[in-house]
Amino acid sequence: MLVRKLSKKFIVKCSACHNDYANGIIGPSLLGKSSNEIFDSIAVFKSGEKKNVLMTDLIKMMDKDEIRALADEIYAFNQKIKEARK
């Protein structure tokens, strides 16, 4: 079972809207996205290009490396889900 395989950082910052499996509840699903797509979708909130109070508040203290690591982690989790579905 893949539940809780994402880091505590993901659970704390992301799972309320994207759930423990990253497939979306309030926020969009993160499944099937590349690391770069995930990074870019977070970066537009960090830069202020896109507005969402909750998203902006959750990532305001994260630097670029932390955002990249989180995007890479979600992508790796996506790959595990693909493998589990085979």
How do the helices and strands line up, and which of them pair or pack?
Blueprint: H1 8-13, H2 15-18, H3 35-46, H4 53-59, H5 64-85
Helix pairs in contact: 3-5
Give a brief outline of the structure.
The protein has a single domain, classed as Cytochrome Bc1 Complex, Chain D, domain 2. 59% of the residues lie in helices and 0% in strands.
In N-to-C order, the SSE pattern is: HHHHH
The gyration radius over C-alpha positions equals: 12 Å
CATH class membership:
Mainly Alpha
Q: Would you tell me the overall average pLDDT?
A: 87
CATH architecture descriptor name = Orthogonal Bundle
- Class inferred from helices and paired strands: mainly alpha
Number of helices: 5
The number of domains? 1
CATH superfamily: Cytochrome c-like domain
Helix percentage: 55-70%
Distance from N terminus to C terminus (CA atoms, Å) equals: 14 Å
Shape: globular
What is the name of the CATH topology? Cytochrome Bc1 Complex, Chain D, domain 2
Comma- or semicolon-separated keywords:
86 residues, mainly alpha, Cytochrome Bc1 Complex, Chain D, domain 2, 5 helices, 59% helix, globular
